[in-house]
Design brief:
Number of helices of chain B: 12
Mean pLDDT of chain A: 70
Oligomer: heterodimer
Largest interface: A-B, 56 and 75 residues
Structural class of chain B: alpha/beta
Helix content of chain A: under 10%
Largest sheet of chain A: 6 strands, antiparallel
Number of strands of chain B: 19
Distance between the termini of chain B: 24 Å
Shape of chain A: elongated
Chain lengths: 255, 432
């Protein structure tokens, strides 16, 4: 309900404490009380996650559909290593370990290897908790020996399953653009259909200490093990390191 | 333990499920860790002093000489400093250098009395000379800083701002000090805000040394360099307005967002200082449940430890609920800050109305602000607001001194959130 300023008569949005126009204090809604404590409104720290020995039980649908369900704290998926952390509300793919969707903010339910759900129509209000269809959960942590590229430094796209062997001393990372003559060695065009990755997103070059990743001023950023890399910052890659480029999650393998 | 604490509070932890958009206030505090025992960054500092004819009134120049001499004594061996005097022209009294012979430096400062630079106020020449000196030793490892003191109205305000903005773009912060009732407070406040510095109002000249001392202690205690705060919003959430609220209230306007992310360059973080920001967030209607509104992230450097682009981040969560009683609970510390911003906004609007001749609205707002100030225990500021309301009502317009007291006083309401002693306002400026 709009709130009318008693000093200047301006209409203010619900929740306003003072008038947007003149600054005068608005009458606080009747019954407003000060909370006894003022703990920071933040998420609990993420607990370390280890792959479970067995697949977790599917999310109970009945509970998930209950609108008054206590949604917090969301438990990090025990299945993070699969990398597929799909938002059941909007279909966005989130980094493993995220409790809330990077895109729409809804709580993420347990990870399941499901295809993204189409985004809701404009104007739709995303429900907070809707479990994805319960399907057997697949852990993505494949035995190393299964890779035909074992022993070669490479990047594995968590979601699409693509593998990019880093064969050159310098490997461009990005999306291809035949028109501009851009054909990156690590071509993430298929892995990133929504074009969150820049055409010249980053590069991986070989040093005596091993391969190093550098962001080249991408639009949506590069994250190395969860830390955003500023343009020009060089991050040495080690076995199992995670790179998130735009919304695409990659794992570095060196053995 | 993180080197910087990032702490966020929402005005409401729970909001009622309605069909309309809703406004919530997000307070973000950024504080260097108390346990941070680092060698603060060395200075590359310029002190720019007004030596126009009016500075001789009320012993202003004498107090300036005493203040800057004291600064010379307090500089560390690693600090670089220069001193510039300006009136019509500018003259470098002490070129950028480390101060080894303090006695000689004090002598050169005292020399300000005898140099001939004219008697007008052309600050631009002073700023340009300071920029030239600062550029000799410009370095990311140093705290590059300018202190600008004036007691009057300068020519070419626009060009002065531009010159300061250019300095800021090169990594130089600028603090401003206005003495007496004849300077343009908005001009000095704008420069300090745009150039990540502090702004001080000194109505009694004998307070000049204390302010210089306070400013020097601040810049000599920078422990976190180049802090950048980003607010990444979830979909359908927008920032309506943003304010820096500590150490002083500054209106940051509607922050632009790129890729749903707003970025703020915080200047530098001093030991034992908290910088706080208030964001007005517009939330869409949603079904019951807990959602992430935004993610805050602070990226910073600690050159002394060889650390660059370190980061801390936080998730901001809110619960949409059908429980009206839960939704009516407000967070007191956010409310206290919002109250202070409300008073600041009212006096700003009141003075704008007064300037455009709308005396009715100006007086109404000043009286409304006075009522709020009284309820916050700010008796003297409330009286000042009422006195100005009376003057405007009589057709006299706001007084220059009263305007300055209100402008600076209300900006500092968040500093202590307890009564401000107007008589010692100038002791209480800029920082916590």
């Amino acid at each position: 309900m709009a709130m009318i300023c008693t000093v200047c008569g301006a209409e203010n949005m619900e929740g306003s404490i003072y008038c947007e126009d003149c600054g005068a204090r608005l009458p606080v809604a009747a019954g407003a009380v000060a909370s006894a404590e003022a703990a920071p409104i933040t998420a609990p720290p993420l607990a370390p996650v280890a792959p479970p020995p067995v697949a977790p039980p599917p999310a109970p649908m009945a509970e998930a559909a209950e609108p008054t369900r206590e949604a917090l704290p969301a438990v990090p998926s025990p299945n993070d290593e699969s990398g597929a952390n799909v938002c059941a509300t909007c279909g966005a793919v989130n980094a493993p370990g995220e409790n809330y969707c990077e895109d729409c903010g809804a709580a993420l339910t347990e990870t399941a290897a499901t295809p993204p759900i189409p985004a809701p129509q404009i104007g739709d209000s995303p429900p907070p908790i809707t479990a994805p269809p319960s399907v057997p959960v697949v852990t993505a942590e494949q035995p190393v020996a299964a890779s035909p590229h074992a022993g070669k430094p490479r990047l594995e796209a968590v979601d699409s399953g693509q593998t990019f062997v880093l064969e050159k001393d310098e490997n461009a990372v990005g999306r291809r653009s035949p028109v501009d003559g851009i054909f990156p060695e690590v071509d993430l065009t298929e892995a990133d259909r929504d074009s969150y990755i820049s055409r010249r997103h980053g590069r991986i070059f070989m040093t005596e200490q091993g391969p190093v990743y550098e962001d080249l001023g991408s639009s949506n950023g590069s994250f190395h093990n969860g830390n955003r890399l500023q343009q020009g910052v060089q991050a040495a890659l080690k076995e199992g390191d995670r790179l998130r480029l735009g919304r695409t999650e990659l794992v570095f393998r060196g053995s | 333990m993180p080197e910087v604490h990032l702490q966020s509070h929402l005005s409401y932890k729970n909001i009622a499920v309605t069909s309309e958009n809703k406004l919530v206030y997000l307070l973000v505090d950024v504080t260097p860790s108390a346990g941070l025992g680092l060698g603060p960054a060395a200075l590359n500092m310029a002190i720019v002093l007004d030596k126009s004819g009016s500075m001789y009134a009320h012993d202003k120049l004498e107090f300036v000489i005493s203040a800057v001499s004291h600064v010379m004594d307090k500089l560390r061996a690693s600090d670089i400093c220069c001193v510039i005097a300006f009136a019509d022209k500018a003259r470098v009294l002490i070129p950028a250098s480390q101060i080894y012979d303090r006695e000689s430096a004090r002598r050169m400062v005292r020399n300000i009395d005898s140099i001939d630079v004219g008697s007008g106020t052309e600050m631009l020449n002073g700023i340009r000379a300071a920029n030239d000196e600062l550029r000799k030793n410009l370095s990311a490892e140093r705290m590059n800083h300018m202190i600008l003191l004036t007691d009057g109205l300068t020519l070419h305000e626009g060009a002065c701002k531009e010159a300061c903005m250019m300095a800021a773009a090169e990594g130089i912060s600028v603090s401003t000090i206005g003495v007496g009732d004849d300077f343009n407070e908005q001009f000095l406040l704008d420069i300090a805000t745009a150039c990540r510095g502090n702004s001080y109002y000194i109505d009694i000249p004998r307070d000049i040394p204390a302010i210089f001392d306070q400013e020097l202690r601040g810049v000599q205690n920078v422990v976190i360099r180049h802090p950048r705060l980003s607010l990444k919003l979830s979909r359908d959430i927008s920032i309506r307005k943003a304010y820096k609220v500590k150490p002083m209230i500054n209106d940051l306007g509607a922050l632009p967002t790129v890729d749903r992310t707003a970025q703020l360059d915080l200047g530098e973080l001093q030991k034992d200082e908290t910088q706080s920001f208030l964001f007005e967030l517009v939330l869409p209607s949603r079904k019951p449940g807990t959602y992430r509104l935004a993610k805050t992230e602070l990226v910073f450097d600690i050159p002394e430890l060889g650390q660059k682009d370190k980061s801390v981040s936080e998730e901001i969560l809110i619960t949409y609920t059908d429980d009206q009683s839960a939704a009516s609970v407000v967070t007191p510390q956010v409310m206290a800050v919002v109250d202070a911003v409300s008073v600041f906004r009212q006096q700003t609007r009141a003075l704008e109305f007064a300037a455009t001749g709308d005396r009715g609205k100006a007086t109404q707002l000043l009286r409304s602000a006075a009522t709020q100030l009284l309820s916050q225990g700010q008796q003297e500021l409330a009286n000042q607001a009422l006195a100005e309301a009376g003057r405007i009502e009589q057709g006299g317009g706001a007084s220059s001194a009263g305007t300055k007291k209100l402008q600076y006083g209300t900006r500092k309401l968040t500093q202590l959130l307890e009564p401000i002693d107007l008589s010692s306002l100038s002791h209480n400026s800029g920082q916590e």
